[in-house]
Amino acid sequence: MKRILIPTDFSKYADQAIEAGAQIAKKNNAEIVLIHMLELPGQSNDAVTGETSIPAIMLFKQKADEILKSIKDRPYLKGIPITEVILLDNVYKGIATYANKNDIDLIVMGSHGSSGFEEIFIGTNTEKVVRLSNIPVLIIKQEVDQLDIKKIVFASDFSKEIKKPFLELLKFAKIFNAKLKLVMICTPNSFKSTTAAEKIMKEFVAEFDMPDYSMETYNDTNIEKGIINYANAKNADLIALCTHGRTALTHFFSGSISEDLVNHTSRPVVTFKI
Questions:
Q1: Burial of 152 from C-beta contacts in 10 A (0-12 / 13-18 / 19+)
Q2: pLDDT at 245 (0 to 100)
Q3: Which among 2, 66, 127, 252 is most buried, taking Cβ atoms within 10 Å?
Q4: 135 and 9 inside one domain
Q5: What CATH code is carried by the domain that includes residue 120?
Q6: Contact (CB, 8 A) for 99 and 135
């Protein structure tokens, strides 16, 4: 892991992501790219000839540049190579496009507690970054004094299409020397016997050089509650999910499970694209 992209809107939630990203960067001798998106009125048509004048755009850019430079001077970023980027673009498209074109290994984003996204991360922006980005996205939910990831819960249906992103998860777990807790959530609408679920999971992991790990099934009323309750029961440091590029989460994670999960858990969440 050499380059970590951290979008910032200068909110305290983005600052939490920067602190977490700094800890990961120090573990990997990685560079941090701080990116601020200037999404201005009239931009969807023409930012220059629309509602925002060129002097106003330059003023916004100058102020953003000053703040980014002040962020670089924070003590916890000392010794980490920092690149500052300001782009005039749609927030989620700009973040995903920059990450995909600039050899970014991880995107770290901040969000507001367990009650939704704030500032540039309101609503579906984070969901769309996850959906568009080919890069893993780590979502930080609260202030992190020490990002000590020792237990990672990975919830899945363990289908064939999960194999490629699962390899990325194994690399991520290796960075932290973390134990993987693999779980298949069984609900009334997607029930499997323990024997059937264990068979699927054992056949899945047999193809990989596995680190320290365990496998379990967990019963709950729905997938989202099952993941959250299982992660709470195991006191997990991180929840890992696989996402689909077209329709958020596929198969096991249908509908808006990813967005709901991120909104309703206080734990960090990392997503890997199928």
A1: buried
A2: 59
A3: 127
A4: yes
A5: 3.40.50.620
A6: yes
Distance CA 9, CA 225 (A): 30
CB atoms within 10 A of CB 1: 17
79 falls within a domain: yes
Residue 252 has pLDDT above 90, yes or no: no
* DSSP code, position 178: P
Taking residues 31-46, what's their average pLDDT?
Answer: 75
Predicted structure pTM score? 0.86
Higher-confidence residue of 46 and 270: namely 270
Cβ atoms 169, 139 nearer than 8 A:
no
- Structural domain harbouring 195: 151-273
Reported for 187-196, long-range contacts at CB under 8 A and 24+ positions apart, including other chains, are 187/219, 187/220, 187/221, 187/222, 187/223, 187/226, 188/221, 189/222, 190/223, 190/252, 192/217
Name the strand (E) or helix (H) holding 12.
helix 12-28
Does one domain contain both 158 and 262?
yes
